[in-house]
Fold this sequence. Notes:
Two copies of one chain form a homodimer. The first copy, chain A, is mainly alpha-helical and 211 residues long. Chain A is 73% helix and 0% strand.
Amino acid sequence: MPKRSYVSSVRASATAETRERIIAAGARLLRKDASIANFSLDVVAKEAGVTRLTVYNQFGSRRGLLEAVFDDIARQGGLFELAEAMALPDPRAALDRVVAIFCTFWAHDPAIGGLNQAIATDPEFGTALVARNERRRELVTGLVTRITESRAAKRAVQDAVDLIFVLTSYPTFAALSPRRSTEEVCRLLQTACHAAVDASMPDAPAGRKKK
Amino acid sequence: MPKRSYVSSVRASATAETRERIIAAGARLLRKDASIANFSLDVVAKEAGVTRLTVYNQFGSRRGLLEAVFDDIARQGGLFELAEAMALPDPRAALDRVVAIFCTFWAHDPAIGGLNQAIATDPEFGTALVARNERRRELVTGLVTRITESRAAKRAVQDAVDLIFVLTSYPTFAALSPRRSTEEVCRLLQTACHAAVDASMPDAPAGRKKK
DNA sequence: AATTGGATATACAATATGTATAATCAATAC
DNA sequence: GTATTGATTATACATATTGTATATCCAATT
């Protein structure tokens, strides 16, 4: 416990800048070969122009750095638009919008691919990502419930929700992404999500025409 | 170069048994927590009752062991049934059959989950798995082509193929698997694949009723 | 001028993959 | 029976990585 302590000013901004430089270096490294294989704190530190010890000083551990990188990427990914999408009166239009938002999100920074792989080496980081994905599932559950109202069985709703959850996941986007623009992937997934919803309703499954 | 060499008999079967014991130990370890995180050659060797050096003797490297484990699991996974499924005269029935075969395959050994994660730490092992997955894509391409004949645009066929490829992948199965029996996942995916095919055909998209 | 706090330098521990060399020991050949 | 072969083991070493500990440097602040 220090006798006299002092705060902010030049000191705080300097450390904040260091922190951002490390996060940027980590993201750059993940973007480089889209793999977590060569992601070591040593390389990240050199890339950021600091010592490995500084990385531990700022993030505590490898996992801490990965989470910081993810949060930084997520903050710029446009997910804040989800709120207004969910506020749309037409739940089907809202679903289309949500699909589009996530397509944009997965596409906006290639480093996301490397982060998704990190689940393998660090199970606890994996659970952190799973928790964030569960929010998406809640959104989808709400929308499907609104679309089907009470015309579908619980089990059918669950099926539709899980299918749409899979269709809007990163692995699915990554599988469809090569050889397609983000917009093309988006349209493809929107159509597939419509089919998933229609399949859960016993009546009039051919209700919607494209465009 | 040995002056006099000799082959087989007790020697060959003994080494073969050692090899199988190591593979079984590796699979058991992957099955244990369904993660590649704690998969080290040291632990595998102890589990198999041999030295770590023996593992290197038999498989050359960590990757070699992983590939051997995968091949061993694949050999018992029922994929040989794909041949007769593809020989079915009705391509839609064949597609249903292929979906069912892969559902059974992904479900038959939990160690597959750990192996899929290994892509992250070892990119070259990843390319080996990708190559094996591409065979599945070829099967699907053939079936969708037969189903749509020439009534669908190339692009629409490509969309259906890629969607079905995703729907029959391990990540999709793993996402739907908790809280569902293998048969339930299978039916769900078959329905989704039907929708993907129907969406690629401009005419009469409501041709099939379930059962 | 003294102190604070972030960054650095240096060292150490633990775990992992991979390589090298000699030794063990049962199975086989002469 | 004796020598040889080949898989396995024992031991050692090199390298990379995560994580911890301690003392030091230096600019910013009191």
